[in-house]
Design a protein that fits this description.
Helix content: 55-70%
Radius of gyration: 25 Å
Strand order of the largest sheet: 3-2-1-4-5-6
Strand content: 5-15%
């Protein structure tokens, strides 16, 4: 049996953490492409396993039974929920798990701040910053989960709300400053600090409308990564530092891309009233009327088309219609119809939501195009089939300066020769903005559940 010296043991631990960090980076890189995403998850999972196992080798480590119990409970809960959760509920799960990451970072900081150990001011400062950011991410992500799950149906707004948020932030900063400088009154000031940080996450997120949740989830993902990186410095854990930095950077870039795709600044997302059906888009000047179509007529239109572009949205996810959509696509391809899928960056309730659903149904990656790739092709499309999408195809984004989404890049479905929209009814979309596309002369509405309506289209195409 090899007898490890403390120096050798420390080198092994640091090398293992470095290996874990490298595996995290490789995994995240591969997750950037649908083709390699599954492999990336495996690599990142191996990295997490390495980091977890090597942690048991830390000098003076104790409480092994509690650690094993925590790992067992957390692992079992994740396994069961991961197996049972529907793809339509994946955004809620992402928000919840992201919040758990922020909460874990805050818990690490709490242990350090309450442990009574003497640390340098720089370390205490990082611990306090990680605690603040992690706590905000934790409570804010829980609110995001509640909104996506439908548990919180109305944004909570009141006069002077932003002033209240600033006061809470300043109070938390003062409490944090007292902890850093050592002017504390026992654990009371620490409790006050964490309470204020958690409250800030609530008051920041409650006013934001549900339509903005994809950006909010990305933002809190970035904050969680940053909090983990800060706590990595506190614990002198290289794996946490690198993994947190990578996740924080990726989350920040994704947040910027999401905000850009909506033509809005992050401040506008956090502090405006957009995203709530009660206040958005009521003044739009509507001309024309919605014109219904029967599934048989829509089937004829698609069966004899040369080119069809399918635009999926959250309505497709709710109806779990992705498999039927792929079946319809296969029928059209057999008839030599050119079919492509157009994906908007903010379609769905989280980044990449539509891509995940289509991949689950087996749609080949070479049929999927993003906004910049597909927009020039709508003019040559005989039919644009919109399934459950709303704001991402709304022409008001470039035709109505008074619209809350004016300037937002959209999929230019209105350029297609014919437009078929599968929709449950005549109500507004999730953000509450009336869609001018539905009232155009060459748009036809196929009312009904997304899965049932697509099944009717399949039967109609089969008869020709």
């Amino acid at each position: 049996m090899i007898a490890w010296s403390p120096e050798m043991a420390d080198k092994l631990i640091q090398a293992s953490y470095f290996l874990a960090a490298v595996l995290f980076i490789i995994g995240l890189k591969q997750m950037s492409s649908p083709v390699t995403a599954r492999r990336g998850i495996v690599w990142a999972g191996i990295g997490m396993l390495v980091a977890t196992l090597i942690t048991f080798s830390w000098p003076d480590m104790h409480n092994y039974p509690l650690m094993l119990v925590a790992i067992g409970i957390g692992g079992a809960a994740a396994w069961i929920s991961g197996k049972k959760v529907a793809m339509t509920d994946m955004p809620q799960m992402i928000a919840l798990y992201n919040g758990m990451g922020g909460g874990a970072a805050a818990a690490i900081a709490a242990v350090e701040l309450l442990g009574g150990e003497q640390h340098e001011i720089s370390i205490i400062t990082l611990a306090v910053l990680g605690a603040l950011i992690g706590s905000v991410s934790f409570s804010g992500s829980l609110i995001a989960f509640g909104k996506l799950q439908g548990l919180i149906r109305k944004p909570l707004r009141f006069k002077g709300q932003q002033v209240v948020n600033v006061l809470i932030l300043l109070s938390a900063a003062i409490a944090g400053g007292m902890i850093v400088t050592g002017h504390t009154a026992g654990i009371e000031i620490v409790i006050v600090f964490f309470s204020l940080a958690l409250l800030l996450g609530l008051t920041m997120t409650l006013p934001i409308g549900g339509a903005d949740m994809p950006v909010v989830i990305s933002l809190y993902n970035a904050l969680t990564g940053l909090a983990v990186a800060f706590e990595g410095f506190v614990l002198q854990n290289a794996a946490m530092i690198i993994a947190g930095t990578v996740v924080g950077s990726a989350g920040t870039l994704l947040t910027q891309l999401m905000a850009k795709a909506m033509n809005r600044s992050l401040a506008n997302v956090l502090f405006s009233d957009f995203g709530d059906a009660d206040i958005a888009g009521d003044g739009v000047d509507i001309q024309g009327s919605m014109k219904p179509i029967e599934s048989t007529d829509a089937g004829v239109m698609m069966a004899f088309a040369d080119k069809v572009i399918i635009i999926p949205g959250y309505g497709m996810a709710v109806a779990q219609a992705q498999h039927k959509v792929w079946e319809l696509t296969q029928l059209l391809l057999e008839r030599k119809v050119q079919v492509k899928f157009a994906i908007h960056p903010v379609a769905g309730r989280m980044p990449g939501h539509m891509n995940v659903l289509l991949a689950e149904a087996g749609v080949p990656y070479d049929l999927i195009r993003d906004l910049d790739e597909i927009n020039a092709e709508f003019e040559t499309a005989d039919v644009a089939l919109v399934i459950g999408a709303n704001d991402v195809v709304n022409p008001a984004a470039h035709s109505d300066p008074a619209s809350p989404i004016y300037g937002m890049p959209i999929l230019k479905a209105e350029k297609a020769k014919n437009i078929i929209v599968i929709k449950r009814g005549q109500g507004k979309g999730f953000s509450g903005i009336e869609n001018l596309l539905f009232f155009l002369d060459h748009t036809r509405m196929l009312y009904g559940d997304g899965q049932a309506a697509t099944a009717e289209l399949i039967q109609a195409v089969k008869t020709f």
